[in-house]
Write a structure and sequence with these properties.
Number of strands of chain A: 7
Strand order of the largest sheet of chain C: 9-10-12-11-13-14-15-16
Protein name (chain A): Thiamine pyrophosphate-dependent dehydrogenase E1 component subunit alpha
Radius of gyration of chain C: 21 Å
Shape of chain C: globular
CATH topology of the largest domain in chain C: Rossmann fold
Number of helices of chain A: 13
Radius of gyration of chain A: 19 Å
Chains: A alpha/beta (320), B alpha/beta (337), C alpha/beta (373)
CATH superfamily of the largest domain in chain C: Alpha/Beta hydrolase fold, catalytic domain
Keywords (chain A): Oxidoreductase, Thiamine pyrophosphate
Order of helices and strands of chain C: EEEEEEEEHEEEHEHEHEHHHHEHEHH
Number of domains of chain C: 2
Order of helices and strands of chain A: HHEHHHEHEEEHHEHEHHHH
Structural class of chain A: alpha/beta
GO molecular function, one term (chain A): magnesium ion binding
Largest sheet of chain C: 8 strands, mixed
CATH superfamily of chain A: Thiamin diphosphate (ThDP)-binding fold, Pyr/PP domains
Oligomer: heterotrimer
Distance between the termini of chain C: 39 Å
CATH class of the largest domain in chain C: Alpha Beta
Helix content of chain A: 40-55%
CATH topology of chain A: Rossmann fold
Number of helices of chain C: 11
Pfam family, one (chain A): E1_dh
Organism (chain A): Streptomyces coryli
CATH class of chain A: Alpha Beta
Strand order of the largest sheet of chain A: 1-2-3-7-6
Number of strands of chain C: 16
CATH architecture of the largest domain in chain C: 3-Layer(aba) Sandwich
Structural class of chain C: alpha/beta
Largest interface: A-B, 48 and 46 residues
Chain lengths: 320, 337, 373
């Protein structure tokens, strides 16, 4: 990877982490309404996959844990923060919230409040890309919980039947809400299910940006060249609960261990500074810039106006 | 030039003309070509009741068979619509909404609002509804009230071949998600249809016939049932004004209210059931907005609150008929305080 | 064969889709002496109400279909014959007619034949009636079509060939109107004459069609033998531009009906079917664009009527008819025609659609123009 691409990847991961850590502390103040599902710990997945995608022709669909995917697909961070605060300056003018951040102009087809909601949509986005013939691909992110939804399994089948330029990224963070994937995923491996649908399946270490990046490169390349869909199971850990406020009484001490020993940002930093590709100063500078960005995003979001009665009944239809 | 063609041919012609006009239009659904991967004809069916027959040969890349996998392909149609296509997906029997409803009411219908007005989802979902073919409870229900209740969806009920073509072309060109409900017992009904493309705007009721004694609002196939009743009533000197809303969402409340202001009496005829349906909805509308004009209680003629029965003797009792409509009109016309 | 002095009054066919007509009132009574052109009965169709006129003189010997009867097109509804024809012969004809009426089947359909000609690469739909060397071509106005001539085409067709055409952008013709100019429309009419093999013809034009036939006569004076103008556009400055814009813009029944009411002296002519038929037309692909293009010919950039054909009148004989209650192009516009020596009939009880509300006056004007040629 070029330095520039590495710097960009680091900035993306750092932005996601900073965004989520800040949300975690802001949520505790009670200023943020509703449900928030944090992506901290999983940054290498969204970043490693979306590094191969462009805004114009490639589409992703995300999940209720969607902030990281949005940031990796270049959705404006300040607009995202404002959306989470329910402000008119938000990505969705305050009408969607954390679970429905979308930006079609960036090929971001939405976070999704329905587990398994995205994969069918991605089949359609892939069909559109295929018919347009510009080499576009569509990527569905879903979790270990979503991997058990009929919609996901139907979509894996349809993607093969229609030979779609689609990539399915199963982010296995170990828990569907409070239920362990080791218990809920029949057969134990999400990636192994790929074989049943006649597509390549692969398991990668989700703490390792480079592993994800490489696996996704191959899958995206195959899709762009008409080779059909791929399923990648990315194994990782979420640093926080299912939602903010989750006491996580079902978990043991794995988070602290992951933060200390496996963290994707640390590993990335160690590798690129260790081999002399980048300097610590370069990365520190990014850290500082990102921290300022998130500070500004929170301050601006808090200062932005809330939607009013005039906004209540708009945007239901284009024409009615 | 208008000529007589069937309701089925009218829909097929609308699809063909729009596919010709706009390369973004794709047709997909179970057996919409028919025979994919099978050793026989590659355009074997054209949909289970033949509505899309012939399109595959004209547009082989844009008529897609699907696995029996409604969640995946209805969702795919929705996703494709957000990315520049104008898919027309066939759900086959409307009762099958049960296996893919999430993709319709949680995804397609809500995108625009959830995404702050920035999503455009021009998907058309075709679905057959209605009793009369002895298809029993899971292939016959008039499910459109459910869709009508969902903000973000438009719901279309063509009552003739002319309406079917113009409303389908409008549905395809419309930028919002549309549920296009075809009554499967009407596919062979014939009517005058222009060869040229045309559109019928949504939210404009058709006054099928004018009359001063009672307003009969009838939906879909019930329009022809109401006409039959009106013919019978005319011989007894009772003149019905028949209003066909054409779309239940948006609903042309103005035309219904204007008619009731003139006649002072209302009967709503709907093949769906009596609870939370269009009969209840339109009755409430008129009671709320035109109470002063009413000279009698509102009458409704609907199917009973039961699943659709199989046995012909029962199914015939289930479907509202002209005698029931005529009796309901007579009772509101003869009503005395 | 019955006595050839016995005339059968048949249910007329006013327009292509007319299958039956309802006699709402007999104006003439049994035993009345009637002259050709006298009003016999009021007839209601699903499209429009009109007055049936006598096509020959004699005594109205018998009414076969009483008021209130729905009779198929072509069915004998009354018998006209000189007083000296014996009752027995009349009875025989009446009995046969009653039987036919009871069966509900007309003997034969001799209504207009609809055909398509290709003019300048565009399909031009037209309806033809009658057979004769003399050719009359009827040209409708803005937003109209060939069926608007339903009451005059039949009376004019005795011994002549009468074509009613759909201008480009209208009726069943191609919807592309080129540059939408008057010249383009005039050339289409002249091209139509070529297409139907007519070296020359008498042209009848209503409203915009009046301007079109005037321009056609100016471009090919040798081929246009007479002009009959019904409330023609382009002869004076007064025209209801709001009507034109309103008609072009209307997309719903609610928007269209108020515009159509302005067309008639008797607003009850604007029934549901008329509105529905026009809406069906307006919803065809390409019609909006066609009407918009033609609107630019009719109105200037300031939004005021811009068409002026007064300079185009040449040697061709001209007759004109105006509805006294014309609210679209008021009869005051006739001054320029009078000044040019044209005979102008102003008919009471008619609005902009004199050929529908006072067809006899239009027929008489055409006959006058034909005689003058």
């Amino acid at each position: 990877m070029h330095d520039k691409a590495l710097l960009r990847a680091y900035r993306t991961m750092r932005t996601i982490r900073e965004f989520e850590e800040r949300l975690h502390s802001e949520f505790a103040t009670g200023d943020i309404p509703g449900f928030v599902h944090l992506y901290a710990g999983e940054e290498a997945s969204a970043t490693g996959v979306c590094a191969h995608l462009d805004d114009h022709r490639d589409t992703i669909a995300s999940t209720h844990r969607g902030h990281g995917h949005c940031i990796a697909k270049n959705v404006d961070v300040k607009a995202m923060m404002a959306e989470i605060y329910g402000r008119t300056t938000g990505s969705c003018h305050g009408k969607g919230g954390s679970m429905h951040i979308a930006d079609l102009s960036k090929g971001m087809l939405g976070a999704n409040g329905i587990v398994g909601g995205g994969p069918p949509l991605i089949c359609g986005a892939a069909l559109a890309a295929k018919l347009r013939g510009e080499g576009g691909v569509a990527v569905a992110f879903f979790g270990d919980g979503g991997s058990n939804q009929g919609t996901t399994l139907e979509s894996l089948n349809l993607a093969t039947v229609w030979n779609l330029p689609a990539v399915f990224i199963a982010e296995n963070n170990g828990y569907a809400e409070a239920t362990a994937a080791t218990w809920s995923v029949g057969g134990g491996s999400i990636a192994a299910r790929a074989a049943a649908f006649g597509m390549p399946g692969r398991t990668v270490d989700g703490f390792d940006f480079f592993a994800v990046h490489e696996a996704a490169a191959e899958a995206v390349e195959r899709a762009r060249n008409g080779g059909g869909p791929t399923l990648i199971e990315v194994q990782l850990t979420r640093y926080y609960g299912h939602f903010e406020g989750d006491q996580q009484t079902y978990r043991a001490g794995e988070v602290q261990q992951a933060r200390n020993e496996l963290d994707c940002l640390k590993r990335f930093r160690d590798r690129v500074t260790g081999d002399g590709t980048l300097t610590a100063a370069q990365l520190d500078q990014i850290d500082a810039e990102v921290a300022r960005l998130i500070d500004d995003a929170v301050a601006e979001a808090k200062a932005a106006p809330l939607p009013t009665r005039a906004d209540l009944e708009t945007d239901v239809y284009i024409q009615y | 030039m208008a000529r007589s063609i069937s309701y089925r041919e009218a829909i097929n012609e609308a699809l063909a003309q729009e596919m010709e006009r706009d390369p973004a239009v794709v047709v997909l659904g179970e057996d919409n070509a028919g025979g994919a991967g099978a050793p026989g004809e590659d355009d074997a069916w054209g949909g289970v009741l033949g509505v899309t027959k012939g399109l595959y040969h004209r547009f082989p890349d844009r008529v897609l068979d699907t696995p029996i996998s409604e969640s995946a392909f209805i969702g795919a149609a929705v996703g494709a619509a957000t990315r520049g296509l104008r898919p027309v997906a066939e759900l086959m029997f409307i009762d099958f909404m049960g296996v893919c409803f999430d993709q319709i009411f949680n995804q397609a219908a809500k995108f625009r609002y959830m995404f702050g007005g920035k999503a455009v989802t021009p998907v058309v979902i075709r679905a057959m509804y209605g009793a009369g073919l002895r298809a029993a409870a899971q292939h016959s229900q008039a499910m459109y009230p459910v869709f009508t209740s969902v903000p973000g969806l438009k719901v279309v009920l063509p009552s003739s071949a002319y309406e079917a073509k113009g409303l389908m072309i409008q549905a395809i060109r419309d930028d919002d998600p549309v549920i296009f409900c075809e009554h499967k017992a009407m596919y062979d009904t014939v009517g005058e249809v222009p060869q040229e493309s045309y559109t019928i705007p949504f939210g404009e009721a058709n006054v099928v016939r004018e009359g001063g004694d009672a307003t009969v609002v009838a939906l879909g196939r019930m329009v022809s049932v109401a006409e039959e009743a009106a013919d019978e009533l005319a011989q007894a000197g009772v003149q019905c004004e028949i209003v066909d809303p054409r779309t239940t969402s948006p609903l042309d409340a103005d035309t219904i209210l204007e008619s009731v202001e003139q006649t002072g009496r209302l009967v709503v005829v709907d093949e769906a059931g009596p609870r939370c349906g269009l009969a209840a909805d339109i009755s409430a509308l008129v009671a709320r907005e035109a109470f002063g004009a009413l000279q009698a209680p509102i009458g409704t003629v609907t199917a009973p609150h039961t699943p659709v029965p199989f046995s012909p003797s029962l199914e015939d009792l289930y479907i509202p008929d002209a005698q029931q409509v005529a009796a309901a009109v007579k009772s509101v016309v003869d009503w005395k305080r | 064969m019955s006595d050839e002095r016995i005339g059968r009054v048949a249910m007329p066919k006013w327009g292509l889709s007319m299958k039956t007509g309802k006699i709402t009132e007999w104006i003439a009574a049994e035993g009345d002496e009637v002259e050709e052109g006298d009003d016999l009965a009021e007839i209601d169709t699903d499209k429009i109400a009109g007055t049936l006129e006598a096509s020959e003189g004699g005594v109205l010997r018998r009414i076969v279909a009483e008021a209130g009867t729905d009779a198929p097109v072509g069915c004998t509804i009354a018998v006209v014959a000189p007083a000296e024809v014996p009752d027995a012969e009349i009875d025989a004809v009446v009995a046969e007619a009653r039987e036919q009426l009871a069966r509900g089947v007309p003997e034969e359909d001799d209504g207009p034949r609809t055909e398509t000609a290709e003019v300048g690469g565009r399909a031009i739909s037209y309806a033809s009636l009658g057979d004769g060397d003399e050719v009359v071509v009827l040209v409708h106005g803005y937003g109209g079509d060939k069926n608007s001539w339903l009451f005059v085409q039949e009376p004019l067709a005795a011994g002549r060939t009468v074509h009613a055409l759909d201008l480009p952008g209208h009726g069943a013709s191609a919807k592309d109107v080129g540059d939408g100019s008057l010249e383009f429309l005039a050339d289409t009419v002249l091209g139509f004459l070529d297409a139907v093999g007519a070296r020359s013809a008498h042209l009848v034009g209503h409203s915009l069609g009046g301007a079109v036939v005037t321009a056609a006569a100016a471009r090919a004076p040798g081929r246009v033998r007479s002009l009959t103008l019904v409330s023609p556009a382009g002869y004076g400055p007064e025209a209801d531009a709001d009507y034109l814009r309103g008609f072009a813009a209307a997309g719903t029944r609610r928007e269209l009906k108020p515009q159509l009411l302005k067309l008639f002296a008797d607003e009850s002519q604007v029934n549901r079917q008329l509105v529905d038929d026009l809406l069906k037309y307006k919803r065809l692909d390409g019609v909006d664009a066609a009407l918009a293009a033609l609107l630019r010919t009719l109105l200037g950039e300031d939004g005021r009527p811009a068409l002026d054909v007064t300079g185009l009148l040449g040697v061709t004989p001209v007759a004109a008819v105006w509805g006294a209650q014309d609210r679209i192009i008021p009869p005051s516009n006739a001054a320029s025609l009078r000044a040019a020596g044209a005979g102008v009939r102003v008919v009471e009880g008619a609005g902009h659609m004199a050929h529908m509300e006072a067809p006899a006056a239009v027929v008489a004007a055409v006959e006058e123009a034909l005689k003058g040629s």
